[in-house]
Specification:
272 residues, alpha+beta, 6 helices
Length: 272
Amino acid sequence: MAIFKTEKAKGKEIPPLLSPPLVEAIFELRWEMQGDAETGRLRDPAYPMMYGRMYERMKKEFPVVEDLPSTQVHPEASPYTVRHRMRKDKTSYPLVQVGPGIITVNHAKGYSWTDYKNLVARLIEMIRELYPVGSIPLNFVKAEVRYVNGILFDMQKEHPLHFLAEKLHAKVEIDPEIFALNDMSEKPFSVGLNLAYPLNKPVGNLAISMGQGQIDNKPAFILQTLIQSLGETVPQDKSGFDAWLNQAHEAACNCFIALCKGPLMHQFGQKS
């Protein structure tokens, strides 16, 4: 993840980066929806009224509203799909997206963890306050935070597996016999690596993915870190979410530091 302001991880100060690689930070929260026994469809008893009341509270800060293409589909036919976007202007971050059973908070350039966390915490409390009384109880069923980073990579100058091993500290090896027995190049033209691990703090999963892509129409490696909790492991109250957000951020930050230490940190302009 990119660090714009000095943060802490395991008691150590992390110097800010002059050229952080952050493409986007995404927080996603889902809550239980009401099932229809006859149709099998899911319905959010809070939608769309909660979205309208949320906008009334936030319109000074996020006055620009955009209805996404998903609004052309009946909400019960597209559960857990964001349908509306709120932001300061047409291209700015952060932005908030809302739909039946789901909300996301997205940030990019200008990101700082403190401001981002405060916005996320405000929205969670808003959901708790605005959720309609008398419907099914509010039950959060999924919480996740994802950091997407883009690291420029020149395929013509660097071997992708060497880049993974030397720059991202992820060594991938293929048995040389494959190349000896086949008429093929030892340099792959496409690389994608996906790993997922159980996580104890916060309780959930930690997933890491590395693959080739593009940043501003330039070839790059896309590094994603995802911290996710599901079902009973998702917090339900303010204190629980405060702890979850801090722990998830620390886990993501630790991954970024470990994977990008050395040459990449110098490339990002790490101050000593």
